[in-house]
Amino acid sequence: MDAEKVARAYSSPNWWYDLRGFLILHFSYRDGLIPLLNFFSRNGSARHLEIAVGSGSFLRLVLAMRKLKRQSPMQGAAIDYAPTMLSGALRRLTSERGWKVERADAAHLPFANESFETINCANSLHSIPDDRGAMAEAFRVLRPGGTFALNVVLTPRGGKISRWIADKIAEWGIRKGILTRTYAEKEIQALVASPGFEIIQARIRGNNYCLVARKPTAQR
């Protein structure tokens, strides 16, 4: 699956994308919105990159969570490859100071080396065709010592019924083009480590694997 096919798959109206995402989170990821917001809101800075921002609704909630917790302002760049998603992100982020929204391929980022202090890729890596390229690009544009937070949907696990539901949703997502694959734990760990990241935090809830990786301050 190439990037253009994924862009076409994400051409749905923003309201349907948001509703669909909420249902997938609960029945495929088997995780909750608040825990996920807490996870991603902890990784932010004034030089932040949001990869595959989608409609912008999740990032808006992350920003609201940070304000609620009185954390430092989070500003930077948000990218997506699907024009329909970008139109929603532009609307949702227009009132947020210090944000630039642009179309870009996660595997070919238009930013200089070491441009960002933090990067998030929420609910998206498993939808990027060139996941290895995206990981290498995240490593390139992150400054040494910077952190990268991401999550992926694991190959369905758990009880027979919940696993069957998650399997069917994953099969539908792959047919639809909004999902390229699911991951095993060791696969995503190896992928994150491949450009040189060090995993410093990881947790699993249901089929949702959340990780925080750091770019080493000294190259080995």
Can you offer a commentary on this structure?
By secondary structure, the protein is of the alpha/beta class. The chain has a single domain (3-214), classed as Rossmann fold (3-Layer(aba) Sandwich), CATH 3.40.50.150. The chain is 42% helix and 21% strand. It has 8 helices and 7 strands; from the N terminus they run H-H-H-E-H-E-H-E-E-H-E-H-H-E-E. The protein has a 7-stranded mixed sheet, sandwiched between helices. Helix 5 (83-93) links the parallel strand 2 and strand 3 (99-103). The longest helix is centred in the last third of the chain and has 17 residues, at 160-176. The protein is globular and about 45 Å long. The mean pLDDT is 89.
- N-to-C order of helices and strands: HHHEHEHEEHEHHEE
Enumerate the spans where pLDDT stays under 50 for 5 or more consecutive residues.
none
- Give the distance, in angstroms, between the N- and C-terminal Cα atoms: 34 Å
Biggest sheet, in brief?
A: 7 strands, mixed
Strand order of the largest sheet: 3-2-1-4-5-7-6
Output the CATH topology: Rossmann fold
| Number of separate domains | 1
Rg estimate, integer Å = 16 Å
Helix content: 40-55%
Structural category? alpha/beta
- CATH homologous superfamily placement: Vaccinia Virus protein VP39
Q: Give the overall shape.
A: globular
Mean pLDDT across all amino acids: 89
Q: Strand percentage, roughly?
A: 15-25%
The total count of helices amounts to 8
By DSSP, the count of extended strands is 7
The CATH architecture can be named as 3-Layer(aba) Sandwich
Reading off the top of the CATH hierarchy, the class is best stated as Alpha Beta
